[in-house]
Amino acid sequence: MFKRISAAKSSVKPAKSATSRPKGFSTSVIAVGMHVLGNIVSEGALDIDGKINGNVRGQTISIRPNGVIIGDVVADVVHVYGTVEGLIKAKNVLLYADARVTGTIMHEAITIEDGAFVDGKFKRTDKISFNDAEVEMARRMQMPAIDPAFDGENDNEEPSEAEIKILENLRLIS
């Protein structure tokens, strides 16, 4: 169930996504310096070295050393070299030495290198099903009930900088 790998054995290695992705799909890349606000869904492999504020779903997902995901990650295989804040739900999860994960990891198999940082829960399952309702429920369980930017305490004041940013992002989405 758990495997221990020393950090000396491996540094940043390319993910083995070439062998595990479906035929006809190439790897999609979110490069360093790119910031995505919203959800990403892919039928194939994703290589993330930028920042994503949203949920990510794909067959094989590699979060590189500069990669940051603030949201849920759902895939068959997840390689984490960077940072994830949220739920990881995958058949096989590999956390490398520089990985930083805050949240719940649902897995069938997991490998953790020495030096990886995890603050959260591990849930081992016999079969991972990718039901969107389950992912949404797990995400809601981790989030606070009320967003502090809209707590109703300062309704008579000018909108805060956080409120303005949220409203601008909502306008971009719709």
Descriptive tags:
174 residues, alpha/beta
Order of helices and strands: EHEEEEEEEEEEEEEHH
**What's the gyration radius in Å?**
17 Å
Largest sheet: 14 strands, parallel
Name the beta content range: 35-45%
Q: State the share of residues found in helices, binned by percent.
A: 10-25%
Which consecutive residue ranges, at least 5 long each, have pLDDT under 50? Answer: 14-21, 141-147
Mean pLDDT: 78
User: What's the end-to-end separation, in Å?
Assistant: 44 Å
Overall SS class: alpha/beta
Q: Work out the number of β strands.
A: 14
Figure out the total of helices.
Answer: 3
Oligomer: single chain
Secondary structure elements and their pairing?
Elements (H helix, E strand, L loop, with lengths): L1 E4 L11 H4 L7 E3 L4 E3 L2 E2 L3 E4 L2 E3 L2 E2 L2 E4 L4 E3 L2 E8 L2 E3 L2 E8 L4 E14 L3 E8 L7 H11 L18 H13 L1
Parallel strand pairs: 1-13, 2-5, 3-6, 4-7, 5-8, 6-9, 7-10, 8-10, 9-11, 10-12, 11-13, 12-13, 13-14
